[in-house]
Every structure is written in C-alpha cells, then in structure tokens.
Amino acid sequence: MSGRDRDEVNQDSWLTIAHEFLDRGVKNVVITLAAKGAFYANADGRAHCPAYDVVVKDTTGAGDTFTGACSSDYLRQKAKGTWDIRSAVVRANKAAAMTIMNVGAQDGIPWSDEIDRFDAPHSEASI
C-alpha cells in the first residue's frame, strides 16, 4: 500500500512509511514484516514488535490471521474504553506465529484462549 517495492521496505523506512499514512489521517498504522514481526505507529508512539521463533510449516493464512487477531483485539479493547496498539500487535504476532506452525489456513488459526497461552521466544533474526 505504500507504493514501494518490497526491497525498499526496511528498518530505515518503516517510520517514514507510517508517517505517510498518519499524515493522511490514518489513526493506527501497522506494517507486517513476515519473519521480522511488525511495526506499528499512532499518535501515542511507535515500535517494532519482533516475530516469534517457531518452526514454519506453512505461511498460508498468516496475514489474514494477523489482521483478524489485531482487529478483534482492537474491538475488545475499545468496548472496554481502552486502546493499546502494542498489545494488539503483540497478540496478532502470536496468532500469526501459531498459524504458520500448521499446514493449511483453517487448521492453523488459533482460538483466543490458545493465543493467551502461547509462549515462544522472539526470533533473533527479527530483533
């Protein structure tokens, strides 16, 4: 969506890309980075959330799972009158990591309680 080639999206450009969206009125920006995790930015801050170190069996559905987990956490938090983008992105990273540990899109999508229990080290490659 940023109009850049994949090789132009790197640690040096994440913040610039996020600001391009924020400057256009987008409230929350999340850039998914596959094996490197995700970068987020909004008016309250910005940070990189590293990926988890898991055995990858199939990446099918990882992006959809990330988006669904982040969106559902946003709605859950807003219903409580709060919003912490970092916790939503961390949760979405966990959900995506769980998805890629399985073959097939549907079988790998975790339930909310499974995300709550998920524990894995962060990938050194993404830090």
Automatic annotation (TrEMBL):
Pfam families: PfkB
Matching InterPro entries: PfkB_dom (IPR011611), Ribokinase-like (IPR029056)
Domain of life: Eukaryota
Entry keyword set: Kinase, Transferase
Stretches assigned to the Carbohydrate kinase PfkB domain: 11-110
Residue stretches in coiled coil: none
Signal peptide extent: none
Keyword Transcription regulation set for record: no
Protein name per UniProt: Carbohydrate kinase PfkB domain-containing protein
Lineage of the species this protein comes from: Eukaryota, Fungi, Dikarya, Ascomycota, Pezizomycotina
